[in-house]
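Researcher: Next entry in the queue.
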Amino acid sequence: MRWLERLPSSSTARCRALFTNHADFSDLTPTQYEAAYSWLGENGLLKDLVSSAAVGERVFRAALASSGAPWLPDADLLVRGPEELPEDALRAAEALGIPENEAYEQVSAVWGKVDTEARALIGSAGELALVNLIAEATDVRVEHVAAYSDGFGYDIAVHARRQPLHIEAKSTVRRGRVTFYLSRHEYETMRRDPAWQLVVVHLTRDLDIAAVASVAAEWITAQVPQDTGPFGRWEACRLDVPPDAVVPGIPRLAPLLGAGRAGLLQSA
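Model: Structure for this entry, 268 residues:
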């Protein structure tokens, strides 16, 4: 690896640290090394060289997160154990010397991080798109309350004197699957607030609004967990909504919709 000396000293030190005890990488060509080094930098693997995590694990996680693998967004359903790991993940784990059980744990961790980040981005985009859509279709004041507080138990307030509506928006870019997380606070707000309504906002991959649908409070109540003892309390749950539990549009908005402006908000 004498060509290492041609790299800047800081680069050399980083690469040596990352590839310590990996003598089988010593036959890389300069071009291969440069490509690998660039990839390591782009994925943040050169910033922390004293991490307690093994090099192989860090590289595996970064490779998963940056892979764009079509199965990763649905890994919670598609990969429920080491025996269900996709072939590409198995090959990567084998190349890095990671056992299948550890690879499965890493897949779960990466999915959790990617899913959390994606939900935050998609959620904000869906809320804003729905606010704009309702404002354009009605003549009442629409307030994006989640923009300044998450304490309301809903995201959007439609301030209509006779037909007020408090909308909890759940946004998704997935087709054929409506899955969302409901907090205990949102659920308790639903129980005491007759104006509360859960609305599913379907977005395109470019985060443009494509469809709007509603889910009845009665259906939600029948699905959430039950506290079975005095010392236990659920705080959040995931709900997978079947097609027959979703109603197109927001029927409760019908009295407020302007002529010819209903669009995606109109029920079928």
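Model: The CA atoms of residues 65 and 113 lie 9 Å apart.
Researcher: Noted, moving on.
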